[in-house]
Design brief:
By secondary structure, the protein is mainly α. The protein is 55% helix and 6% strand.
Length: 350
C-alpha cells in the first residue's frame, strides 16, 4: 500500500469519523493486525475510545477481525475500502439514475450508516421523502420496500456477513455455500409479496394515518443522526438482518458502462445494445473481477434483445462476428462471441 494512499485514507477517516477513528485506523494501517489492548497502547487512547473507533470502522465495513492463535481478537483495517469514500457520490448518482429518488436515498442512507436493517432504512427514506413533499402528501413505505427489493435482486445491496462462530474445526465449505446463497435473500416478514398477504406488515406511515385521530395530521419527525434512534431493535420484523452497499456490483456496473461507451463510439448503437444485452444476461453469473462473462448462444442473445431494436437474426450474427474479429479486443464482446463459435475465450483486461 503506497504511503500516499495511507495518508489519503487518514484524511478521509478524520473527515468522516473524527480524530480518534483516524488515529486507530492510521495505527493499524501502519502496523498491521493487533488486539484491542495493543491498539490502545500504541495509540495512547483509552480502551473505551478504541472500542468505539473499532465499532465505527466495523459498522462501515472498513475493518475485519479474527481470533488469533493466542485466542485474542485481532483487528485489520482495509485502506482500499476507506478510499472508496471518494466514490460515494458516484454510487449515489448511479442509484438515482437506475432507480430514481428512492434508490438514491436508500444507497445514501446505507453509505452514511454503513449497515442497517431493511425496516430501518426503508422507514427513514419514506420519512425523508415525505418531508420533501408538499403538505398533505406522503411516501408509502411499501413503495420504498419495492425499490429496496429491486436493488437486492440486482445485487447492488447485500446482506452483512455474519461472523463465524468460534470452533475448533475448520471452516465448513457447505455452510459457506449456504451463506453465499443467503446474501441476497429478503427476510420473509419484509418481502413485498408477504406484505400483500399479511396486512399487519405495512408501512409505518400508513399505520400512523390509520391510528391517528380524525382530522389530525401526522407530525413530521426531524431526521435523526442515528439509524437506531427512531425504533427499537426488539420490535423490528427483520431483527438481526443487516444490509450494506455491494461496492463490487457498482464497480461491475461502471466497467460495463465504459465498455458500452467504447463500443458505441467505435461501431454503432446496435452493437452497443447487443453487448448491453449480453452483459445484462450475465451480470448475476459473472464475478465482478472476471475478465470474461459466461458463454451464451446467439439464440439466447436474440431472444433477450429489446423488441424496439428490430434486429434480424442474420444481422445479429454479423454484428457478433464483427465484434469477435475486432482488433481492439474490447473485453466482453470478444470473449462472448468466441465462446459462441467454440473457440477459446479471451481473458483480456478492461
Amino acid at each position: 500500500m503506497a504511503q500516499s494512499q495511507v495518508r489519503l485514507g487518514r484524511l478521509l477517516l478524520q473527515h468522516q469519523h473524527g480524530d480518534i477513528v483516524e488515529n486507530v485506523g492510521a495505527f493499524l494501517a501502519a502496523n498491521g493486525s493487533f488486539p484491542l489492548k495493543d491498539i490502545a497502547t500504541g495509540t495512547r487512547l483509552r480502551v473505551d475510545e478504541v472500542k468505539k473507533a473499532l465499532c465505527a470502522l466495523i459498522q462501515h465495513n472498513m475493518m475485519d477481525f479474527e481470533r488469533s492463535k493466542r485466542g485474542l481478537l485481532e483487528y485489520t483495517i482495509h485502506i482500499n475500502k476507506v478510499l472508496l469514500i471518494t466514490r460515494y457520490p458516484r454510487y449515489i448518482y448511479s442509484a438515482k439514475t437506475l432507480y430514481g429518488d428512492v434508490g438514491e436515498f436508500l444507497v445514501e442512507e446505507l453509505l452514511n450508516h454503513g449497515q442497517m436493517m431493511m425496516s430501518q432504512v426503508c422507514r427513514r427514506v419514506a420519512e425523508r421523502i415525505t418531508q420533501a413533499l408538499e403538505e398533505g402528501q406522503s411516501m408509502d413505505e411499501f413503495q420504498v420496500r419495492k425499490t429496496f427489493v429491486e436493488l437486492v435482486k440486482t445485487h447492488f445491496i447485500q446482506r452483512v456477513v455474519v461472523p463465524p462462530a468460534d470452533s475448533g474445526d475448520g471452516a465448513d465449505s457447505e455452510t459457506e455455500l449456504v451463506k453465499e446463497k443467503e446474501m441476497f435473500l429478503i427476510p420473509p416478514a419484509m418481502d413485498i409479496d408477504y406484505s400483500k398477504v399479511h396486512p399487519s406488515v405495512t408501512s409505518s406511515s400508513k399505520r400512523k394515518r390509520e391510528d391517528g385521530e380524525e382530522g389530525d395530521k401526522v407530525a413530521k419527525r426531524p431526521r435523526s443522526t442515528s439509524p437506531l434512534s427512531d425504533e427499537k431493535l426488539e420490535d423490528a420484523p427483520d431483527k438481526g438482518v443487516y444490509w450494506h452497499v455491494n461496492f463490487n456490483r457498482f464497480h461491475h456496473f461502471f466497467r460495463d458502462q465504459a465498455v458500452l461507451s467504447a463500443i458505441n463510439s467505435k461501431i454503432d448503437r446496435y452493437a452497443c445494445e447487443i453487448v448491453r444485452t449480453m452483459l445484462r444476461m450475465s451480470e448475476k453469473t459473472s464475478a465482478p473481477t472476471a475478465t470474461a462473462t459466461q458463454p451464451m448462444s446467439s439464440h439466447e442473445i436474440f431472444q433477450k434483445l429489446p423488441s424496439e431494436l428490430d434486429l434480424k437474426r442474420q444481422t445479429l450474427v454479423e454484428y457478433l462476428t464483427l465484434l469477435a474479429e475486432d482488433k481492439v479486443h474490447i473485453q466482453g464482446s470478444v470473449s462472448h462471441t468466441r465462446c459462441l463459435y467454440g473457440q477459446t475465450c479471451s481473458q483480456t483486461d478492461v
